[in-house]
Amino acid sequence: MKICVCSDSHGRYERIEGMLLRERPDALLFLGDGERDIYRQDIPLPEVYAVCGNCDIGSSLPPSRSIELAGKRIFMTHGHYYNVKRGLSELRAMCEGHDAVLYGHTHRQYEERCGDSLILCPGSLFESAEAYAVLEIRDGELSLSYGEKTE
Fold first, then answer.
1. How many CB atoms lie within 10 A of CB 140?
2. SS (H, E, C) 108-135
3. Model confidence pLDDT, tens digit, residues 88-125
4. Of 132, 101, 134, 102, which is closest to residue 117 (Cα–Cα)?
5. Is the pLDDT at 135 greater than 80, yes or no?
């Protein structure tokens, strides 16, 4: 299963479309701040899982959620309720019971291992059309790549 992970498009909806056309994923995980951008696409969308960000005013999406895809448990949040701009200690607590913990909000790509879990921020699509991550789940293994690593 191929999964695109992105966040913080802030109106740059065409960058979501470009990512989807390049990658052809089975699922899209959107981590907030651009909820409306997802649904402005002129192309068929894969299965979409999303959370609201601090700029998604009036959103009915949850601020965080846990999902299971291809046998892997994934926690998604925008990150503002977990104070990610001050550090990841609050998010690290979510590693227990999850194979991946995904967040946005900081606009900076980041990855770290937390025990057997992956903590990941894909970066900001607003700042770079290539700032997204691709998770692949094959034979029970989770692998990670990027559109392009940004600083």
1. 9
2. CCEEEEECCEEEEECCCCCCCCCCCEEE
3. 999 999 999 999 999 999 999 999 999 999 999 999 99
4. 101
5. yes
Q: Examine residue 42 and state whether it is found in any structural domain, yes or no.
A: yes
DSSP per-residue string spanning 19-44: HHHHH--SEEEE-SS-HHHHTT-SS-
Domain that holds residue 100: 2-146
Residue 16 forms part of a structural domain: yes
- State what percent of residues in the chain have pLDDT above 70: 97
pLDDT at 151: 46
Q: Kindly state whether residue 11 falls inside one of the protein's structural domains.
A: yes
Q: What residues does 65 pair with on adjacent strands?
A: 76
H or E stretch including 5?
Answer: strand 2-6
DSSP of 48-91, one letter per residue?
Answer: EEE---TT-TT--S-SEEEEEETTEEEEEE-SGGGTTTT-SHHH
**How far is the C-alpha of 108 from the C-alpha of 75, rounded, in Å?**
18
Q: What is the dihedral of CA 113, 118, 121, 125, to 10 degrees?
A: 130
- Alpha carbon dihedral 50, 52, 57, 58, in 10-degree steps, equals 70
Distance from the Cα of residue 32 to its chain's centroid: 8
